């Protein structure tokens, strides 16, 4: 029998290899369909709202007649170690067309230097010093709400680097005059001084177009963004003590609001100017915090979101669905990798065309979502930054657990690492 083995063994071996190769090929092919089926859902979702926002005419919140009520507003600015920017922000945000006796700028001073606090106290603003073992925006806001009088009608929340346009509060007041209880302003870039800042500004405007303007065009609630947003004061004071988020407090607050079927308006012409991240390192730090918040709220709201869909609360269900979406830079990266693979491996197979159509649709979605003024700033230098930011985003996904128990602070007012 031994003399037969050399003749039989190669045949058995070749059949085994052929079977294994076929299994691997089938598995890879099915995996590709699963991955790019998932990206297709996201791409179509984004494109539908992008087209809706593109077709929708902007609605102004400026009233045709004088408002019947000039609501009293508290402009809340949590400032954690923001000595570099908070004084300029406080001064700038005092310059409103809105009557000065109808709003207060309130700086929540968390770990600021004594000299900074002294300068702030010399301005016509309120300063609320706070101190925590572990600082978060939610803690800072709750501390301020506990100390401030309940005589305000509206609370506006800003980041420490934010500058309101001079008509911002007037437009917010007009929206509340129309019956809204929650309003999101148009947060836009204050700086475009580095390639990363330009790309961050582009990302911000895509968010504004799809998740705010596009959603409102189809009758859904505008997404909140963490700053440049206004709330009925009593509503915020009732909900904030329940918010315990380490990061992404706005997402928890938004979930709670949508559970109550309270929608948010988007004011495209009410501008808040926001400092964009200037370096890849800061970009990665910021996205790590965002990814941690996304995973957290997906875990907490997946089941309630499905029930809300069955009960007809589409705003809440849609917000939960958004926590399942792949971040856009990762989506673009996955489609680009798939496009290259299909050219080399799958050629004219259906999965190859499936990926290519998605990539074209996604690029079109981005194009119609970005203002012309920003499109002209995106050149080869900015595009060359995308692979590096894709890798940094992957690292932020891997490292997101570090943001669960520690607030990851994004520094402002510095370009020391702008080139990295």
From TrEMBL:
Its EC number is 2.4.1.-. The chain crosses the membrane at residues 30-52, 329-347, 353-370. The keyword DNA damage does not apply. InterPro entries: Nucleotide-diphossugar_trans. It is an enzyme of class 2 (transferase). Keywords: Glycosyltransferase, Membrane, Transferase, Transmembrane, Transmembrane helix. Pfam families: Glyco_tranf_2_3. GO terms for molecular function: glycosyltransferase activity. Belongs to the glycosyltransferase 2 family. This is Glycosyl transferase family 2. It comes from Fibrisoma limi BUZ 3.
């Amino acid at each position: 029998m031994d003399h037969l083995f050399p003749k039989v063994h190669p045949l058995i071996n070749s059949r085994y290899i052929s079977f294994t190769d076929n299994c691997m090929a089938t598995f890879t092919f099915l995996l590709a369909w699963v991955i790019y089926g998932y990206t297709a859902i996201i791409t179509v979702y984004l494109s539908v709202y992008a087209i809706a926002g593109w077709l929708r005419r902007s609605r102004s919140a400026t009233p045709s007649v004088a408002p019947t009520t000039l609501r009293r507003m508290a402009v809340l600015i949590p400032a954690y170690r923001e000595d570099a920017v908070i004084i300029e922000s406080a001064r700038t945000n005092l310059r409103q067309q809105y009557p000065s006796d109808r709003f207060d700028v309130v700086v929540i001073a968390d770990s600021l230097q004594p000299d900074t606090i002294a300068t702030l106290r010399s301005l016509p603003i309120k300063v609320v010093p706070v101190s925590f073992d572990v600082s978060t925006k939610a803690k800072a806001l709750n501390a301020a709400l506990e100390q401030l009088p309940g005589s305000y009608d509206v609370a506006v929340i800003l980041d420490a680097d934010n500058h309101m346009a001079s008509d911002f509060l007037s437009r917010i007041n007009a929206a509340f005059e129309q019956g809204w209880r929650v309003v999101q302003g148009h947060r836009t870039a204050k700086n475009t001084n580095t390639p990363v800042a330009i790309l961050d500004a582009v990302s911000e405007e895509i968010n504004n177009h799809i998740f705010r303007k596009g959603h409102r065009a189809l009758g859904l609630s505008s997404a909140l963004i963490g700053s440049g947003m206004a709330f009925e004061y009593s509503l915020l004071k009732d909900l904030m003590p329940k918010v315990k988020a380490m990061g992404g407090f706005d997402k928890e607050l938004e979930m709670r609001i949508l559970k109550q079927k309270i929608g948010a308006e988007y004011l495209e012409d009410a501008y808040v100017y926001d400092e964009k991240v200037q370096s890849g390192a800061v970009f990665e730090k910021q996205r790590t915090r965002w990814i941690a918040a996304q995973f957290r709220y997906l875990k907490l709201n997946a089941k309630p979101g499905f029930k809300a869909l069955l009960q007809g609360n589409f705003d809440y269900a849609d917000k939960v669905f958004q926590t399942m979406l792949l971040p856009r830079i990762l989506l673009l990266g996955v489609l680009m990798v798939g496009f290259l693979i299909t050219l080399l491996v799958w050629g004219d197979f259906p999965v190859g065309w499936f990926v290519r159509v998605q990539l074209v649709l996604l690029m079109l979605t981005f194009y119609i979502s970005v203002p012309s003024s920003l499109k002209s700033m995106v050149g080869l230098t900015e595009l060359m930054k995308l692979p590096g930011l894709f890798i940094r985003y992957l690292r932020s996904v891997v490292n997101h657990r570090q943001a669960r128990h520690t607030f990851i602070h994004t520094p402002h007012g510095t370009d020391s690492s702008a080139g990295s």
